[in-house]
């Protein structure tokens, strides 16, 4: 019934997925065509809105990314940032969320010595679908640990006491910078479909540090770039450590932005915006 009610938009989605950029992806994942018919991204997003989000996501990728982008990341994760710290390799890669793709259609994964320990799953959507003025937003539907606590604790300690989830948000900031986006939408805890039984994660507490809850909408509106407290408001004893943390996150942001630029058609969106 849902398919029949949305048949015109469904056929539009089929045409979009027939594009050369997504042709191989559809061959390997034919279920992608119908994924909006079940819960997608959030419990309070209708099937029609989910379909429109998918249309906007893949339309945006086809218009702004090189033709082999999706094929590349759907077969081999693309490294966006990497660094050796005390003999351990840390990476942030972009991948297609193969096993949990009802939560979104792109993901950033934080790795330690090639082991995936944390991920952020998101999708690019028209801002109007969230009643926002932005032409496009990044909607974050999942922030989850995917390996043991020991690896997460070790990574946090070695990366200037910054948790992997925060490092992935810095990377997402870099993606937004490359694309010229100014808003992230974060799905609130109440509407989460991806809460892990093994790793509980407070989305309200996490997203609340970056933005504000939109009343009656069950999502957080997070401005890009992220707001930072003025250094003179931070106790002098912690100021130097705070500066080191911010420098490390900014390094990740800028490196990720530079890496994403290689896959874009034409110059980065933020460069075009600066010229106008």
What do these coordinates show?
One of its GO terms (biological process) is DNA damage response. This protein has 276 residues and is of the alpha+beta class. The protein has a single domain (80-275), classed as 3-Layer(aba) Sandwich (Aminopeptidase). Helices cover 41% and strands 21% of the residues. It has an 8-stranded mixed sheet, with helices on both faces. A hairpin with a 2-residue loop joins strand 1 (78-85) and strand 2. Helix 2 runs parallel beside helix 4 and helix 7 (164-179) crosses helix 9. The protein is globular and about 60 Å long.
The number of distinct helices, counting runs of at least 4 residues, comes to: 10
Mean pLDDT across the residues is 87
Task: Give the neighbour order of strands across the main sheet.
Answer: 1-2-3-4-5-6-8-7
Assign the CATH topology.
Aminopeptidase
The secondary-structure element order is HHHHHEEEEEHHEHEEHH
Q: Would you identify the CATH architecture? A: 3-Layer(aba) Sandwich
Helix/sheet category:
alpha+beta
The first-level CATH class is given as Alpha Beta
- What is the count of distinct domains? 1
What characteristic shape results from the CA principal axes? globular
| Main sheet record | 8 strands, mixed
User: How much helix, percentage-wise, in residues?
Assistant: 40-55%
Which stretches are poorly predicted, pLDDT < 50 over at least 5 residues? none
Approximately how much beta-strand content do the residues carry?
A: 15-25%
Instruction: Output the radius of gyration.
Output: 19 Å
Separation, N- and C-terminal Cα atoms: 47 Å
Strands, total number? 8
InterPro entries: DUF535
GO biological process, one term: DNA damage response
Pfam families: DUF535
